[in-house]
Amino acid sequence: AEAAPGKPLILLGLNPGAEYGPAKRWPAESFAAVAREVSRKHGNCAWLAFGSASDWQLCGDIARLAGGGVVNLAGKTSLRQLMALLKLCRVLLTNDSGPMHVAAALGTRVVVSFGSTAPVLTGPGLPGDARHQLLQAAAPCSPCFRRVCPVDFRCMTGISPDRVVDAVLRAIGLG
Questions:
Q1: Could you give the angle at the alpha carbon of 30 between the alpha carbons of 93 and 165, nearest 5°?
Q2: By the 8 A CB rule, do 61 and 49 touch?
Q3: Longest dimension (CA), the chain
Q4: What is the pLDDT of residues 139-166, one digit of tens each?
């Protein structure tokens, strides 16, 4: 990310994995589109991509598709390091996952795309916590609580990158 005069650098996190299964994973292209657009609109941010070692390729793909400004840390942090870095992030853009709960517990705002799961059951922090942006599509089959989508993944593809960009900007105080 290029430095913008007068704007301090902010750290933002990406957590594109979800161990439960692919039905909980918002598309990599969408994560990259959000990173590109938020970076363009803010002008002075760096993205840290978190995940397990098995997420290395996914995070690398997002970094490549974002065109810069994303540091792939998948499989490179201990739990203690992950916690320290999540605490430094202004926002974590994530799927419904363990790191989502860790970030929320540390006081970091989270923006979450929910597909096969329900925010009321598995969402971060206390119900109704206004710090977090919990996004869903109006898919009649969601939540299904399946690991793999048996139809067309509309619960996740129905959440547009533009909607997520707006949520991230609101979470960092620019929306």
A1: 55
A2: no
A3: 49
A4: 988 888 888 888 888 988 999 999 999 9
